[in-house]
Amino acid sequence: MADCPAPGAKPFTAPVAGGTAVSGVQLGNAKRAVVLSYEWGGSPCDWSGVATELVARGYRVALWEYGTLTGLDRVKELQAVVNQVRAAGATEVVLVGGSVGGCVSMIGGSMITPAVSGVAVLSCASWYDVDHRMPTTPLAAKLRVPTLYLAGDRDSLPVAEVRKDFGAVPAKDKKLVVVPGSTAHGVELLEGTEAAAAKAALFAFLDRVSR
Known about the structure:
Layout: E1 10-14, E2 22-27, E3 32-37, H1 48-56, E4 60-64, H2 74-87, E5 92-98, H3 100-111, E6 118-122, E7 127-128, E8 134-135, H4 137-140, E9 147-152, H5 159-168, E10 174-179, H6 195-209
């Protein structure tokens, strides 16, 4: 996290049940919060630009680094971060992530207690975790909180797989946004010339579910 410091960032360390503590930073001090989870091989810094925008829009933001847990156990780390954010004063929490971070967020949406206010999933479908290759569709079928799926229709992740997972989500409040012509994956959907539609959808979703 020292690689992408931001003005006013507050470092934290969160104890994890059954694992080692995870570290991160919180930005802002609003009651409504967004927890951002990053792509495989990436870092929390990949989301620093989005985090800055969210703080300017009136959100508290948590960026965090994955610890030692893998597979479904990684949700315990996400739970620890959510606990930390709530202890700091957040009353509404939305999970947002890209690629494997999107999968972690999606799974966390059905496992974290108390339930979060919503989940935004960028570029996650087919399988979760590079090592475990766990099918995602049965996990998506457990998600009942408000849900937003974002994907590029020319991403290497087939959009048909995204539609399959989205179709399995039982939440009544759900939306899928596919960006035409976009090869972007994960947080890249919110960057560059093709980002307007995806970013507008994400911000509208966050504003609606975390009033």
